[in-house]
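Field: COMPLEX_INPUT
Field: COMPONENT_COUNT = three
Field: RESIDUE_TOTAL = 679
Field: MODE = joint
Values follow.
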Amino acid sequence: MAAAAIELERLERRYGERVALRGVSVRVEVGQTLVVLGANGAGKTTLLRVLATLLRPHGGACRVLGHDLPAAAWEVRGLIGYLGHDPLLYRDLTGRENLGYHARLRGVAPGRVGEQLKAVGMERRADEPVRELSKGMVQRLAVARATLHDPALLLLDEPRANLDPGAAEQLEPLIGRGSGRTRVMVTHDVEGGLTEADLALGLRGASQAFALRAAGVSPSEARGLYA
Amino acid sequence: MYSKGFRPLSIAAVLATGTALALIFFYAPNDADQGFIQKIFYVHVPMAIVALGGFVAGGIMGIRHLRTGDRSWDMRSYVAIHLSIILGAGVLITGAIWAKASWGHWWVWDEPVLVSFLVVWLLYCVYYPLRYSIEDPDRQARYSSVFAIAAGAFVPINFVAVRLAEAYTHPRVLSQTGGSLPGEMRLTFLVSTLAMTLLFVTLWKLELTSKHASMQLKRLRRRLEATA
Amino acid sequence: MIRTAATILRKDLRIELRTRESVPAMALFTVTVYVLFHFGLDRDSLDGELASGVLWVTLLLATVIGVSRLFATEREQGGIDALLLAPVDRTALFLAKAAALFLYLLALEVVAVPAFGLLLLGPDLVDTLPELPAILLLADVGLASVGALVAALAIETRARELIVPLLLLPLLVPLLIGAASATEPLLRGDQAAEGLGRFLALLAAYDAVFVLIAVAVFDFLLDD
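Field: COMPLEX_OUTPUT
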């Protein structure tokens, strides 16, 4: 059996004494999409940050792309694309400069910068400081940044929050199903998330409520998480 | 977990302290120039030595913590630094009293050891705000250890620097607390230092045990609340 | 690693050139403090120990500003997460931040030292200032490495603006002793400075120790 993209076994993470995530066990195969559902504070972002190596797991087992976390965080960092709430762009630099900076840090060929700008439709405004761009445009650049190094695993936190439908469609090849990447997606859009995903993970009060095939979860059941 | 050997240690500390006090008051001769007040030396200097030792030990425990990732070493480091800061306040106060008695001023800048000690003490006082303004416990432990290591290395550099500056502006002959102590004073001094060291280690263990116990208690209470 | 450090440094310098946040603030602060000393001491010109002390204490205080702002772009815009997500070696990050601070300090001194000479030194002493660069360079290495370490230590604390000066200034006491004592004979118009070598050696030793410590412990900062 080929190694799974993500294997979590009773994953636990605390902030001090407070438990932020407990007993999460899920297995995502390469190329699959996992949608993470749950109310605010249920631990969705914590899970994403653990997978991104930004937070250390405190208990259980966590394997990402065949590497154990937190021991092999370094290897994992090169393979994931993280798109969180924060675009992680310097507002005083232009889009092109931001991407160029990340390309150099990650050892990506400089030619990729132009390609990515084109792919997210930001070529024309690539030389304006990020602070002068609208939220939607910043999000496009953030997508370009997160996929710059062609990551095998995408970690997406509300990826379409600031995008109009047209932009969302344009970014499909980079962060959508069609990208062929394994994806973990946090969203409040229950129906959209469930149709897009192979697997669904429901979190309630820092614990796992369910981890099932997405097709087997009815939207009304998922909505119960928010009650 | 920290209470192993606590009873013999505390008995030894009490005995050594009693002996040291007896020696200070009844055995050590009064100093020819300074008279009785010179006896504060037997408190002041051992206290300073033990406090500095505690600071450096805190740094070494910090290294152990970062190396092993075992947070109990951070707790050890924290308690060592905490006690050393308290002793440090004692060093500065007894130093001021001694300075007032023998030189007529509460503070003298041309005593390099005391001046260095003040700088070191001021630096270590920042340990508390640094430690307690970091909320995440793992991170708090790690940042505190980094502080403990950097500050521990700072201690000797600072002493060299201050002595260099003083030697330059106030050339002085050998330090008077060097190896030239007469026999009785020397013995009293050594016993006092031993007593202070034992006292420090005893208090360190006591504090660690109580910290550990209160942490256990908190954990149990939390578990009880969770099941109730 | 050097390449990564250069990339981060170039980014920091580009942002600094574009926003002009740190260096102008440090320079303005320094000149203001010289004016304060003029009134506070009620003296038109200084020399010797007093001059050297005023020069160096002011530079140290200006360093506090630079250190507080050192990770500001990461905190306020780019996100520390971005640096953590890219496999960036901590040593490279330390080198980049220390180099940035070092360059800021050099830029500051280009303004601050002549301003000091102009505002507070007697006319016959201004000529001695060209002797300063060796001392300034050695001191800047120490200021930059301790500064980068303190900036990283304070980054997670709530009361950052309090922690930085409280932590930085005592740590800089040996550096102040070395730099001020080495400068003092120059500002007395005493060219045959005895003991200069000793204080330069002190500065060099201080630099070496803190660069090594910072490189060794930086791995444990910033990460979760």
